[in-house]
Task: structure prediction
Amino acid sequence: MRAKHRIEWLDPAKEDVFVIVDFLIDKAPLVALGFQDVLEKQLDVLEDWPRLGQENKYFPDVFDFKIKGLPYVVAYRLAPTGHIVEILAVVHERQNRADPKSYHF
Result:
């Protein structure tokens, strides 16, 4: 049996979620209220399938996971030690993902 990975949100990614919710609260309050739950539920699959995301074409060892039904992508990497999926950033799908600042590098 394969070991489960633990999902760990880095502080910059948590801040991304806060900024997105703050932006959405006036425009789509119901989406804003459920945004974090949607992220967590969809990302749960990474506990068993950590390489499910698409390899990022700009940065090695970074994966992009498209959030179904929303225009956001979660960037993550596998930690070099242990079974940990590190959530690096949550970005809008139209955001310049070639820019290292989008991922807080």
Summary: Strands lie at 6-9, 54-55, 63-66, 72-78, 84-92.
